[in-house]
Write a structure and sequence with these properties.
Elements: E1 3-8, H1 14-24, E2 31-38, E3 41-47, H2 51-57, E4 65-71, E5 86-88, E6 92-100, H3 103-112, H4 124-134, H5 140-148, E7 153-161, E8 167-173, E9 178-181, E10 186-189, E11 201-204, E12 210-214, E13 218-221, E14 227-228, E15 233-234, H6 250-256, H7 258-265, H8 267-270, H9 284-289, E16 293-298, H10 300-315, E17 321-325, H11 326-329, E18 340-346, H12 352-363, E19 368-373, H13 379-383, E20 386-389, H14 402-421, H15 427-448, H16 451-458, E21 466-471, H17 476-490, E22 493-498, E23 515-520, H18 526-538, E24 542-547, E25 559-563, H19 572-591
Parallel strand pairs: 16-17, 16-18, 18-19, 19-20, 21-22, 21-23, 23-24, 24-25
Antiparallel strand pairs: 1-4, 1-10, 2-3, 2-4, 5-6, 6-7, 7-8, 8-12, 9-10, 9-11, 11-15, 12-13, 13-14
Helix pairs in contact: 1-2, 3-4, 4-5, 7-14, 7-15, 10-14, 10-17, 15-19, 16-19, 17-19
The protein binds 5-amino-5-deoxy-1-O-phosphono-D-mannitol (M6R).
5-amino-5-deoxy-1-O-phosphono-D-mannitol is lined by residues 299-302, 346-348, 351, 354, 398-400, 484, 488, 605.
C-alpha cells in the first residue's frame, strides 16, 4: 500500500508529482503529500483529502526536485501530521511505502539523541536516521544506506535533501519501486502507471537495491553494495487503459471489460488446436510430470479463485489440491511435499502475504512454483519458476473483478493441461473444452445484458444491514466472492455459506429482513439447492436467485429470479460471478459509497 512518486528535472516537477499521485491513489487514499526542493529549502504540502485537494493546496509550489506520497495508514491515524513526506531537521524528506518493524526501538534511541518526533508514523525514524548520517557529512546515498542497514521491515523509499537540489535517492526491500528514464530527467514511482505521461522507459529495482538518481544518470547498488546495471524496459501500458471513458466508475468499466479480458487471456489457446504445457513456461512440461499434488496460496478474491480451481483440479485432473490463505500458511507449521506444485494467485503480484507465503514454501523445500498474475514485471512473477499471465489490463477499482474471472480462466487452462499430461483428458474432451473456452467471452457478454435488471433489484438492498449468500460445490466460492464484493464496497455485512450448511447454524439468522442470494446453476446439485431454498422461504427469508436456463425456478412471492442466459458447465463459476459483481456495484451506488476507493482499503496490499 501507499504510493510513491519522485522526479528530478529541469522543469517544475509539481504537476508530474500530482499526476503520478493521482494514478497511484488506488494504492492508498488516507492522505497525500509532496515535498519540493526550492532555494535550498524543503517546501511541503499535505492533505487528508484526495490528491485533487493536495493539487489545490500546492498551486503555488514549484521546484525541480521533489517526492510525493499517497498513504494507506498503518502507524498513526490518517491525519495531516502523519501524512508523508516526513521531514527531519528541515534537511531530509522521506516518502515511504511499507512497515518498519523495529521503529519503536529506533524511536526511543533517536529521541534520546535529541530528535523530536512530529508524527506517530514508523516512517519518521527513517527520516531522522538518514538525517543523523547526512548531517555528519556523508553523501545522501551513503547516509541512506547506513540508515537502511538499521531497519527491520519492508520499504520502498524516496529521499531528497534541501541542500542537494538535483539528486534523489531511493531504495526498495519488500515493496515495489521503479526508475523512469526520461530525456535529461529521471523519475521514481511505485508503478509504471504513475509515469506514463513522462516516460515509458523504466528500470525495475530488485529486492535490496539502493539507487542514486540524477538528472541524466542513475547508479544502482544491489543488496551487497555492488554497483549493478539493471535493464531498461519499455512499458507497453497505454494511458487510455487507465482512463474511465464512458463509465461512471472503474469498477463498472472493469466489469464490462471482462469479455475482452477473457478473450485476451485465452488468446494463445483459442487459436490453437491443442493444449500444451508451454503456456506456463518452458520448464512446465518437465515440472508437471514430477508433481503429485497442488497447493494454492493467495489472499482475498484471488483465494476464492483458488477455491474454485480445487474442484476442477481434483475432478478433472485427479490431483489432490489444497488451498490456503497466504497469511495463514506463512506462519503455520505444515508438512511439505517436494512433489507439490505451489500455485500462487495474485492480481498485483505484490501482495506481501502471498510473496511471503511463496518464500516460505520455497524455504520448506518446494521447488515447483507457478504464479498466475496480472502484472508481468511483479515480484511474484519474478520469484516463480513457471507463470501464466492473465491479460486483464490494469485493474484500478479496489474491488477485484476482471482479475478474478481471468484468474479462473487461467486456472481452468492449468487444470486441462495437467489432466491431459496425466492421461485424463481424451482428444474429444480437449476439443470440447477448447470450444467452450472460445465461446466464453461471448457468454460473458450475454450475462452483462442483465445490468438493467440487476440495477433494479439492487434497490431492495439499500436499506439492508445484512445479506446471506448461498452456493454449492464449485459455486460456493462464487457465493464467497459475491459476499466479499458486497461488503467491500457497500459496507453491508455479508456472509456466504455452502447451502447445505444452512441448517447447521446460519438458518437462525434468516427472517424477513435478511436477503438471501443464491447461486443456482443447472448442475447435479440443483435439486439439493432447491430444497435449501425452500428452507429459507419457510422462515420468511427473501430470496434472490441467480438461476441458469432450464432450472425450472420461477419468481414468486418472496422469490426474485434472475435468469442467466445459459449453463456453462465447468465454466459456470466464471459466468455466475458477473451478476454478483453487478449487484454489489449497484447496491453501492444506492448507498452512495465511494465505489472505487472503499473506506479503509487499498488496491495493492504490500504490507502484512
Ligand atoms: O493483488 P492480489 O490479487 O494478490 O490481492 C489480493 C487481495 O488483496 C484482493 O483480492 C482483495 O481481496 C480485493 N480487494 C477484493 O476485491
Amino acid at each position: 500500500m501507499c504510493g510513491i512518486v519522485g522526479a528530478v528535472a529541469q522543469r517544475n516537477v509539481v504537476p508530474i508529482l500530482l499526476q503520478g499521485l493521482q494514478r497511484l491513489e488506488y494504492r492508498g487514499y488516507d492522505s497525500a503529500g509532496l515535498v519540493v526542493v526550492n532555494n535550498n529549502r524543503l517546501e511541503r504540502e499535505r492533505s487528508t483529502g484526495r490528491v485533487a485537494e493536495l493539487a489545490a493546496k500546492s498551486a503555488r509550489s514549484s521546484g525541480q526536485l521533489g517526492i510525493g506520497h499517497t498513504r494507506w495508514a498503518t502507524h498513526g491515524a490518517p491525519s495531516e501530521r502523519n501524512a508523508h513526506p516526513l521531514i527531519s531537521g528541515g534537511l531530509v524528506a522521506v516518502a515511504h511505502n511499507g512497515i518498519i518493524e523495529n521503529y519503536e526501538v529506533l524511536r526511543a534511541r533517536l529521541s534520546a539523541e535529541g530528535y523530536e518526533f512530529a508524527s506517530d508514523t514508523d516512517t519518521e525514524v527513517i527520516a531522522h536516521l538518514i538525517h543523523s548520517h547526512y548531517a555528519r557529512g556523508n553523501s545522501l546515498l551513503a547516509a541512506t544506506r547506513s540508515a537502511l542497514a538499521e531497519l527491520v521491515g519492508a520499504y520502498a523509499i524516496g529521499v531528497v535533501a534541501a541542500d542537494n537540489p538535483a539528486q534523489l535517492v531511493c531504495a526498495r526491500r519488500g515493496s515495489p519501486l521503479l526508475l523512469g528514464v526520461g530525456d535529461g530527467e529521471r523519475f521514481i514511482a511505485s508503478d509504471v502507471s504513475a509515469l506514463l505521461e513522462v516516460t515509458r522507459n523504466v528500470v525495475y529495482l530488485e529486492e535490496g537495491d539502493v539507487a542514486e538518481v540524477n538528472l541524466r544518470s542513475h547508479r544502482i547498488f544491489d543488496a551487497s553494495g555492488e554497483a549493478v546495471e539493471r535493464p531498461v524496459h519499455v512499458s507497453t501500458l497505454s494511458s487510455d487503459s487507465m482512463e474511465l471513458g464512458e463509465y461512471r466508475h472503474y469498477m463498472q468499466k472493469e466489469i464490462f471489460e471482462q469479455p475482452q479480458a477473457l478473450a485476451d487471456t485465452l488468446e494463445a489457446v483459442c487459436y490453437s488446436q491443442s493444449l500444451v504445457p508451454g503456456i506456463f513456461g518452458a520448464e512446465a512440461a518437465a515440472a508437471f510430470s514430477q508433481i503429485d499434488s497442488i497447493l494454492i496460496l493467495a489472499c482475498g478474491t484471488s483465494h476464492h479463485a483458488g477455491l474454485v480451481a480445487r474442484y476442477w483440479l481434483e475432478e478433472i485432473a485427479g490431483l489432490p489440491c489444497s488451498v490456503e490463505i497466504a497469511s495463514e500458511y506463512r506462519y503455520r507449521v505444515s508438512v511439505p511435499n517436494p512433489k507439490t506444485l505451489v500455485v500462487t494467485i495474485s492480481q498485483s503480484g505484490e501482495t506481501a502475504d502471498t510473496l511471503a507465503a511463496l518464500s516460505h514454501a520455497k524455504a520448506m523445500g518446494h521447488t515447483h512454483t507457478l504464479s498466475i498474475c496480472n502484472v508481468p514485471e511483479s515480484a511474484l512473477v519474478r520469484l516463480s519458476r513457471l507463470r501464466m499471465l492473465t491479460r486483464a489490463g490494469p485493474e484500478i477499482g479496489v474491488a477485484s473483478t476482471k482479475a478474478f474471472t481471468t484468474q479462473l480462466a487461467a486456472l481452468f487452462l492449468l487444470t486441462l493441461v495437467l489432466a491431459k499430461q496425466r492421461g485424463r483428458l481424451s482428444a474429444e474432451e480437449e476439443q470440447r473444452h477448447l470450444h467452450e473456452l472460445r465461446h466464453l467471452p461471448s457468454a460473458a457478454q450475454a450475462v452483462l445484458k442483465l445490468e438493467g435488471d440487476i440495477a433494479r433489484l439492487a434497490e431492495n438492498f439499500a436499506a439492508k444491514q445484512h445479506a446471506l449468500f448461498l452456493g454449492r460445490g464449485m459455486h460456493y466460492p462464487i457465493a464467497l466472492e459475491g459476499a466479499l464484493k458486497l461488503k467491500e464496497i457497500s459496507y453491508i455485512h455479508a456472509e456466504a455459506y455452502p447451502a447445505g450448511e444452512l441448517k447447521h447454524g446460519p438458518l437462525a439468522l434468516v427472517d424477513k429482513d435478511m436477503p438471501v442470494i443464491a447461486v443456482a446453476p443447472n448442475d447435479a446439485l440443483l435439486e439439493k439447492l432447491k430444497s435449501n431454498l425452500q428452507e429459507v422461504r419457510a422462515r420468511g427469508g427473501e430470496l434472490y436467485v441467480f438461476a441458469d436456463a432450464g432450472t425450472r425456478l420461477h419468481s414468486s412471492d418472496g422469490v426474485h429470479l434472475m435468469q442467466m442466459p445459459e449453463h456453462a458447465g465447468y465454466l459456470s463459476p466464471i459466468l455466475h460471478t458477473i451478476p454478483l459483481q453487478l449487484l454489489a456495484y449497484y447496491v453501492a451506488l444506492q448507498k452512495g459509497t465511494d465505489v472505487d476507493k472503499p473506506r479503509n482499503l487499498a488496491k495493492s496490499v504490500t504490507v502484512e
